Amino acid sequence: MADFDIDLMSCPLPKMDYDTIQLAHGAGGKLSADLIDKIFIPRFGNETLDKLEDQAVLNIPKNKIAFTTDTFVVDPIFFPGGNIGELAINGTVNDVAMSGAKPLYLSVGFILEEGLPLETLHIIALSMEKAAKQAGVKIVAGDTKVVNRGSCDKLFINTSGIGIVPNNVNISANRLTPGDKIIISGSVADHGMAVMTTREDLSFKSKIKSDTAALNGLVEVMLNISEDIHAMRDPTRGGVATTLNEFAKQSDVGIQLYSDKIPVKHDVKGACEVLGIDPLYVANEGKLIAVVGSEIAENMVEAMLKHELGKNASIIGEVVNDNKGIVVQQTGLGVNRIIDLPVGEQLPRIC
Amino acid sequence: MADFDIDLMSCPLPKMDYDTIQLAHGAGGKLSADLIDKIFIPRFGNETLDKLEDQAVLNIPKNKIAFTTDTFVVDPIFFPGGNIGELAINGTVNDVAMSGAKPLYLSVGFILEEGLPLETLHIIALSMEKAAKQAGVKIVAGDTKVVNRGSCDKLFINTSGIGIVPNNVNISANRLTPGDKIIISGSVADHGMAVMTTREDLSFKSKIKSDTAALNGLVEVMLNISEDIHAMRDPTRGGVATTLNEFAKQSDVGIQLYSDKIPVKHDVKGACEVLGIDPLYVANEGKLIAVVGSEIAENMVEAMLKHELGKNASIIGEVVNDNKGIVVQQTGLGVNRIIDLPVGEQLPRIC
Lengths: 351, 351
Prior knowledge:
2 copies of one chain form a homodimer.
Chain A: H1 30-44, E1 56-59, E2 64-72, E3 78-79, E4 82-83, H2 84-97, E5 102-113, H3 118-135, E6 138-147, E7 155-164, E8 181-184, H4 190-198, H5 216-225, E9 229-233, H6 239-251, E10 254-257, H7 266-275, E11 289-292, H8 294-305, E12 314-320, E13 327-330, E14 336-338
Parallel strand pairs in A: 5-6, 10-13
Antiparallel strand pairs in A: 2-7, 3-4, 5-7, 8-11, 8-12, 9-11, 10-12, 13-14
Helix pairs in contact in A: 1-3, 2-3, 5-8
């Protein structure tokens, strides 16, 4: 079921009185307690969460923190390369990490549909446990709501995250400066196309897998090269095109993309062509875009190439003085085309 | 529509290209930007949120913080005395405040159903703005997802919150000590019965209003009397009965409730009788239970009585040595009855 390697033999679904989620599992009574005790605490437990207070009290050693929230509604909830639970951990870890912060603590809020198989929730909780461990973060606060059948689609997950920002780091979408280089950590459009190609009416065979991954380890490597990263973001919904447009507008600069530098895997490119979708607009869940001064760009890429999640890193463009607020890509023919913000919704419920 | 006094004349829905939520409003592109610029930033804007980064970077002056999350799925989204937006602000402010912390920052995650009228979202955002101002908290991070029609019920809201815990405060469900007094800040069951009596098939006339309110101001008054509050919680889902059971179990003590001390408003009591529901099990959204040493209990109540949200505060019971883990209420006849955790779901989607 899950692509994340989950061993249900060594960690089977605990014996419970019901096989599926009941409204009472969200009511705060005995069944709520049962769900927390048997499904969540064994997976997420730590000295803070185990207290079962309504809030986590945390010791924060430094005084600048990053705080972020994201809700996950991806459909289907299991897709090649991952599932909604893993995505919910990695997505929020990444949003914290993109500020240069070290992610430390997460909260998790579930909305469950009455009738959801408990085994599904168990597998998702297992994936979340594994993803949180890999990223080195603790789940310290949680909430579960159950809605009646038909009032949500299986389950939705909100995660919020807290991290510590190093003192000298100041990463922001408004710090792009002409001459800066645009770096991408690897191939684009993997996550979005993995989800798209599994949707029922697009079931052509493909080996495309989501790239969902926690990027905080890669960010640490990058900050060791230089703390002076100007801007950084993970190009999720709306893809690389949207992130770069936001950068260009917020810094009031132009962005020039090199024509043939943006890495796209062969299968992904094929699927995009079949569906008529530009990979620059497709969601990624384990990639980052960094904007750095040209003097450190080569060193930065070199360091990234040595990390598993940066092994296809490359410089894909630069910040320019003209075309303020606009992203331009040179085509193979030497013509410039404007990479605008997407207007409609190509890929609903991708994350 | 909203009970919270919203002046749409002075703050009308901005002119937008659509009247209802489209899938593209959640896609991260132009329509997403439009929604953020016209509906959310005018309501929630502040120097942190306006940066439109994927995470808020916050200066935290002290080193112990409270962190909490809660998802709101209340049905209907407008009810007498409030709406889902106001509830989402107050609920998370209260969860932070119950640790004795001063709530400072909130994140907001929306799940919107395609087709939701923009005016509904606008009114809810206005209520949230007002509630956040009243509570003195800033919304510093946000996320919006849109799901296709039928995949959620109108809208759900997750809020996560951060606050600063004063150094000498140590409030916890495991600090109840025999002899301690149980204080409630006012009448019980208002919120739950306000929602129940508005559900379609229970439309008997009543004047019951939700008690939704931010309790951080009251908590400040209480901490001024003594920082040594042993335990504190807002009895939301599952009501007073559930909160006290959790306290009794986590501290391994008994709780004895006085028979006639629990304040229930006349209309609320009537509605509970008609529906066959015990008010002790019904959700509150603007009440707190505090457990304090007997030597300070009277002073604490006296101070609470002077605050708008504590004007019906009273001592409703005490912590005892016997009946460990159990909550007992003396009935009018002098017989003890056990107030157990609720087993089923009496009131789905109450918050």
